[in-house]
Amino acid sequence: MNYPLSLYGKTFIALSALGVAAWQDIKRREVDDSVWAFSIPAVLLISACEAGFGIIDPFLLAASLALAFCLGLLLHRFGLYGGADVKALLLIASAFPSYPPGMSLPLWRFFPLPFLAAVVAGTLLSAAYPISIFISNLMLMIRGDNPLRGVEEENPFRRFILLMTARRIPIEELKDSLKHFPAEKISVDGGVPKRRPVLFVHAEADVDSMVEELVRHKEIYEDGVLASPTIPMVAFLEAASILLSALILL
Description:
Layout: H1 5-28, H2 33-52, H3 58-77, H4 83-95, H5 114-126, H6 128-142, H7 156-165, E1 167-169, E2 180-182, E3 184-189, E4 192-197, H8 207-215, E5 225-229, H9 233-249
Antiparallel strand pairs: 1-5, 2-5, 3-4
Helix pairs in contact: 1-2, 1-4, 1-9, 2-4, 3-4, 4-9, 5-9
């Protein structure tokens, strides 16, 4: 298909920015604001010009941006997305507000707006994290090592969730790093500190305070602490965007 150069240009800008952001997200779970400060306005300007010249439907551009903004805020509100994830979503929505005319793959039947396909694909790809954690914990159990030892939790369902989302690491690895969030907390019962599970930590939670509380009782964590690896969602959104752009352009 002969698509306008503007589509290739904004695709290059978006994928390049997402690539830089994904690398930073993988390395330190934070993304510099400068990545978005250039890429989002640049891509949005190109899409706005396309809408002005009738290359894309301005209504679809507005709908894509509005829905991406609302969905990002909702996911952020529930702690599923961090700030960088929301900005990545806006960048994808700005770059791919609609499918090009004549596209043979009927993605629009399932995902009317392209960024929705990227969100679903990125989420499915990110499922590799809990699957790998569960397999790792399962292998420990097969070898006779209980990864949940010391944690006070009898509910089978909650224990299963922990096996899917948490692994035991040295408590030192929790300090000054966003690659893991605590999956347990201290609860003092009758003057005795007990280890209680934490099944979910908000993406913007005060993790430092949670870690400090655990460090104050580090004597009971000599064999490690349960921690949930944080998911570099920007990296999975980047992978989904590469797949999406390949389906659109090739």
